[in-house]
Design brief:
Layout: H1 3-12, H2 16-28, H3 35-50, H4 56-69, H5 78-88, H6 96-101, H7 105-123, H8 127-144
Helix pairs in contact: 1-2, 3-7, 3-8, 4-5
Length: about 150
């Protein structure tokens, strides 16, 4: 598992000592937040949760629940959160592409990270299951963005 993935794992497990250690290391190396692994992990988690039903009402309820249950949930924009999930499922709904296209990459990663936290928490993943999800996301990342 790569450092960026371990960083995300620490965040999802609320292992703040490991998280802080990686954050300091990334900062000293001039790296930012590892948005790519967050995005791919979000994609995998969304597919696992919603791919079979692709039910917009279920997605709306999930985002509303995330907004209610997350510590920073009030700052989670509902319309954008829903649009990001619809986009991961390739659901062609009015306005989705426009909303996603207008999101700054940092804002997008923040929304995805918050929703990913809820997806992982709701699924009650064991450490092994979380590692499996993250390694699947890491493989997709490298498949779509090979290092030269």
């Amino acid at each position: 598992m790569q450092e960026e993935t371990k960083f995300l794992r620490a965040l999802l497990r609320q292992d703040w000592e490991t998280y802080d250690s990686f954050a300091e290391k990334f900062q000293s190396e001039g790296k930012g937040t590892p948005v790519a692994i967050i995005g791919y992990s979000f994609f995998v988690a969304v597919q696992r949760r919603f791919a079979e039903t692709r039910d917009a009402r279920e997605i709306i309820r999930f985002v509303a629940d995330a907004r209610a249950r997350l510590l920073e949930g009030r700052e989670l924009p509902a319309k954008e959160g829903e649009a990001l999930i619809y986009a991961m499922l390739d659901m062609d709904l009015p306005g989705v592409e426009e909303i996603v296209d207008n999101l700054d990459i940092g804002v997008m990663a923040e929304i995805q990270g918050q929703l990913l936290f809820r997806l992982v928490e709701d699924a009650e993943l064991t450490d092994e299951q979380l590692d499996e999800l993250l390694l699947e996301a890491e493989a997709l990342l490298h498949e779509n963005h090979p290092v030269e």
